[in-house]
Every structure is written in structure tokens, then in C-alpha cells.
Amino acid sequence: MSGFMATFGLWLAVFFTFSIFSFLYKDNPLYKLSEQIFVGLSAAYWLVYMIYSILLPNLVTKLITDFWGNVILLIPAALGLMMLLRIFPKIQWVSRFPIAIMIGTSAGISMLRYTKSDLVSQISATMINPFAASTVSGVIGNFLLIIGTICGVYFFYFSKKQEGISAVPSKIGIWFLMISFGASFGYTVMARISLLIGRLEFLLKDWLHVIK
Amino acid sequence: MSAVSNTQTERRIVFLVLLVAVALPLIFPIGWKTEVSSYAKMAWDLIETTPDSSVVIFSFDYDPSTMTELQPMAEAMLDHAWSRNQKVIAIALWPQGMQMADQAFTAALLNYPNKKYGEDYVSLGYKVAGIVAIQAMGRSLEEVFPADLKGTKYADIPMLKDIHNLKDIAYVNSLSSGVPGIKEWIMGARDISQTPVTGGTTAVSAPGFFPYVNSQNQLYGLLGGLKAASEYETLIGKIGSATVKMDAQSVAHLLILVFILIGNIKAFRQRKRRQT
Amino acid sequence: MVIACTQAWLGSKPFDYLFDNAYMPLSATMFSLLAFFIASAAYRAFIIRSFESNLLMITAVIVIIGRTSLGGMLTGWLPESLKFWHLPNLSDFIMEFPNTAAQRAIMISAALGIIGSSLRIILGIERSYLGSDK
Please, are residues C24 and B240 in contact by the beta-carbon 8 Å criterion? Predict the structure, then answer.
């Protein structure tokens, strides 16, 4: 790559970084310009990736190199084309067939996988001997884990009004959820600050060479 | 009108203070030490105890928006895997993941210049469809990836000679910032093919994945955010890009706590004034 | 000829030039704006109001400080018998037990919901995705 284009690229990145940061002071045309470029670039990237990473290697190339060996691929190709017919109001009903296949497949896969990974395995992981931990804090933690999970699930049971004594587990469930949301807030702070550090590192290191 | 402009000014002061608080420790590092959490140690243990010459999968399920958090993890874990002489298959469930993988390999190759493409590592590329693709990999990797990114046929890649499906993979390391990512790998690889899964994720997503680190070993450890990346760098004994950023992270966290404190004092005073 | 010139100017993969110098900084900076907004939210909206909000606040504070190098230094002097109260350990305890319990409850409840709606779709009771409300 020519030196000029490398430097130009760096300044382009710096320009976009500052344009977006300028929104913190006030909405302005530079921010709007960068925002529009971002949206346009994202859309273009997705399109190019879809064509080159999915459509060409999985369909077009295979059909060109060995048509009869891959003739079954004409079925997903036809379903894909049927999906595109949504843009014509008169025949948009045709797109219902591929949608039905997609939703049906997702429903089947989700039901099986969520039953195993998020239901059975999670229940099994909660059915532990709390005294198996080697430390006192571990034993207390195991009790908290069991009580918190049961009360949390109970809180999400909306089929019967929870009042009086039956509202107690629900209340405990809320406490656990609040602790979890607090922890999530803490982690969110960490994530957002990290992203800012990344941008400042770019400005101070790659652009200004203030840090090594 | 003045109340609105006061709020606006307050906001701008908060923004400016945060910017300075993050920038200063980057320019003048303090050098605080990082303590390793049990979750990072578990992930490290999995890679450390995997035998030499095992073939492993690194799945790059993120894009540039979260690379500050995930790229240091990818580089540190790749470094560790290569130090144990493991052979790495790079794939991506996110379209831009392969570009992230390229960057990680470029960084790791500086420390391991003798690693050869096709023998020690290979990029099989991006695959659409998330869990459906993973389930298909459980049957046959060659069917899902007939060729690598350079167009070399699966059967002609030396390191993949004895690798037929996910059961032949020592572990899967998913670096994920959303869907598809770690969850899909747990559902499709761990819970079907029994292939161990470990990984790293953004700090935002991490709390939701902790239930998978359980007695059922659905997930072997978890790296959540930049702090965990720096913990991993500590474990492999390297000062990487995450470690140098931890001072800035610490100062910014302290500042956020100060903001919470000031905000509460202000709210308390307003409440008192209203009562009197 | 055109390809050779473009490659000489923009590198072996001209497609990557825009990715590295436009898409990547735009995407990363757009998300980094959230750091400022979360700081502003911490100042203006993170106020103690009830017992539940107290729980949320205390946990957030422990996790925010416990997940930094500074947290480790603040309570690093504690004797072995009090190591549980060492901020990184306390933060790990919260993540490992109460947080996991609540997240697991959400996970189990969501799984039940997903299984229920999948069954409705498979049995043909739920057909709204086809554009019909029956």
C-alpha cells in the first residue's frame, strides 16, 4: 500500500472518530455525515458478505462445478427466490412457504436444544449437595444458588395471583434478580469503559504516538 | 430554560471528566497488578491440560465494535494454544469474524514465526446459520467446510487429515459478542457431541453465561470483558494489550462510583428541600 | 491494469482498506459513546429509593470496584481468615452464586416459554408469523 494512502486511511479513521465524539457536545452535520456513512457501509458489507460468503460458495460455485451432484440445492435456491417475492404485493403470499419452513425448523431445533441445555441441564446443575463445598462460604453459596433459583423461577409464575404467604418466595426471587441486575450493571460499566479505552488508545497510540 | 442548560452543562462536565480520567492513565501508566479469577483460571486449565498436537477450534463470533474487549482474549488464548503446540482451526459464525481471526493470527505469528498455515493453523471461514451449522459440524466438518478460505480442499489440508467431526476436536473456544456465539456452541457442540467448550465474551453478556459454568461442565470457565483478558495475559505471563489498559479501566470505575455518590447526595438534598 | 493500480494504492485487499479505516473506527466509536452515557446515567439515575434499589446499588458498587486492579489493592491487606471480604473474592462470590441463581431462573423460565411457543407453532395453534391472527 502506498504511504500516502496509509496516512490518508489513518486520518480518515481519526476524522470519523472525532465526528462521532462531537455528538457528545451537540448533534451536528459532521456526526450526521459519519452516521450515514456507517449505515451505508454496514449495509454494503452485509450485502457483499452474503454474496461472497454464502451465495457463491454454497450455491453458485457448487452448481457450476457439479450441477447434477448438487441438484438438491435447487430447492433452497427456489425457497430463497420465493422469499424475495414479498416485494410484489400480489404474489407475496408465495413467501409464506419459505417462512413456514424456517419457523418450523427453528421451533423444532429450539424446543430440543433449549429443553436439554437451558432446562434439564440447568435443573440438574441446581440439584447439588450444598454441603459438598469445601469452605463455609461455598456451602452458603450453594444454599443461595438453590434458594435463588427456585424463588426466581417462582417469581416468573404468573398463572396465579401471588398474595399472602405465597408472595414470600416471589419477594425473595426479586431480591436475587436485583442482585443480578446490579452485577450486570457493574459488568456493563466495565464493557462500555473498555470500548472507550480502545478508541482513546487508537488516538493516543496510532495517531499521536503519545503512548507505545 | 436555565434548568435545561444546567443539566446540559452537567452532562458535558461528566463527559469531559470521564475522557480525561481514561486518557491520563493511558499516557502515565500506574502499574496496578491484576488478580486472577476462578473463571479465567478454568479456561486456562482447559487449554493447559489439552495434549500436544490436539486440533482445536477457535470461533471468532464478533465484529470490530467489540474488538477492544475480545481481540486481547483471542490473541492471549491463541498464544497459549500455540505454546502448547495445539493446532488451531479458525472459523466464524459472524461475517466479519474472519477479519478478526486474521488480525489475531498476525499478532500471534510474531511470537511463533515457525507456525505453518495448513499444518499448525487453518482458516475455514465464515458459516451462516449458527446452531444449524454447528449441529452439521457434529456430523461432518468437511460437509460444512468443503474448502478453506484460500480454496484448498478440506481433504488436502494436512492438519485436518484425521479430523472428521466435532468429536475429534479437543475443545471449542468461542469468542462471542452475541448471537450466534457461546450459547449456540454449548447447545450444538457440548450438549450433543460432548466437545468441551470454553470462551470469552463481552462484559455485558458475561453475567448471562455464568449459569453454564456448572457441575454439568457445559462451559469450562469464561472470560468476561477486558479485565478477564488481562487475567488471561497474567496467567500466560505476558503483558499484553489488555493489561496495559487496566489502569485506565480502574480509574474510570472509581470515577463512576464517585458520580454515583455525587448523584445520590444531590438527590438526597433535593428530597430534604422538598420535605422542608 | 486497474486492479494492479488499485492494489498498489490500497494494499493486496482493497476491500479491507475501507473496513480498516472507515467501518472499524465508525463501529467502535459508535459503541464507545455508550461509556459517556453510562457515566451520565450513573450520575443522574442511579439513586437509592427502596430496599430493592439498595440491593442493586450495593451489588453494582462491589462488582464495579471488585473487577478492577484497584479493588484488589484496596483490600489486599486483609488477613487470610477475612479473605472472603477481599473485594475481588466478594465480587466473584456474587457472580458465582446469587447472580448465577437469578440468571438460571431467567434461563429456565425463558426455556419453558420457548418450549411452549415452539409447541404452539408445531401443533399449528400459533400462526401469526404467516400474517394471520388465527
Answer: no
Q: Give the end-to-end CA distance of chain C in Å, rounded to a whole number.
A: 61
Chain A nearest-CA residue for C14: A1
* ipTM score for this prediction: 0.91
Rounded to a whole number of angstroms, the distance from the CA of C48 to the nearest CA of chain B is: 7
Residue with cell 475480545: B70
Residue C114 reports pLDDT greater than 50: yes
Q: Which of B62, B260, B262 has the highest number of chain C CBs within 10 A, making it the mutation to test binding with C?
A: B260
Dihedral sign of CA atoms B43, B46, B49, B53 in order:
negative
Query: Strands (DSSP E) along chain B, which ranges?
Result: 55-61, 87-92, 121-126, 172-176, 197-201, 223-224
Which residue among C35, C63, C64 places its CB closest to the CB of A196? C35
Q: Return d(Cα A163, Cα B132) in angstroms, integer.
A: 44
- Name the percent of chain C lying above pLDDT 70: 88
pLDDT one-digit tens code per residue, B101-155: 999 999 999 999 999 999 999 999 999 888 999 999 999 999 899 889 888 999 9
Decide if C85 touches A, using CB distance below 8 A.
no
Bridge partner list, B122? B89
Among chain A residues, the shortest Cα distance to C34 is held by A192
CB contact under 8 A, A37 and C109: no
**A191 burial level (CB within 10 Å; 0-12, 13-18, 19+):** buried
* List of residues 6+ apart from C69 with CB closer than 8 A: B32, B33, B34, B35, B246, B247, B249, B250
CA B67/CA B241 separation, integer angstroms: 12
Per the CB < 8 Å rule, is A182 touching C119? Answer: no
The yes-or-no verdict on residue C9 having pLDDT over 60 is no
From the list A16, A96, A190, which residue is nearest C29 (CB)? Answer: A16
Is B35 in contact with C69 (Cβ distance < 8 A)?
A: yes
Q: Name subunits touching A (3+ CB pairs < 8 A).
A: B, C
Pairwise CA distance, residues B180 & B177, whole Å: 8
With bands split at pLDDT 50, 70 and 90, how would you rate the model's confidence at B45? very high
A179 with C110: Cβ contact below 8 A: no
A74 CA: distance to closest CA in chain C (Å): 24
Q: Which of C113, C98, C9 minimizes the C-alpha distance to C56?
A: C98
Task: Report the distance separating Cα A93 and Cα A99, nearest Å.
Answer: 10
Confidence (pTM):
0.91
Closest residue of chain C to A109, computed from CA coordinates = C118
Q: Which of C15, A23, A194, A85 is nearest to B70 (CA)?
A: A194
Q: How many CB atoms lie within 10 A of CB B110?
A: 9
Q: Quick one: which of B164, B212, B158, B156 has its CA closest to B184?
A: B212
B198: left (phi over 0), alpha (psi -120 to 50) or beta: beta
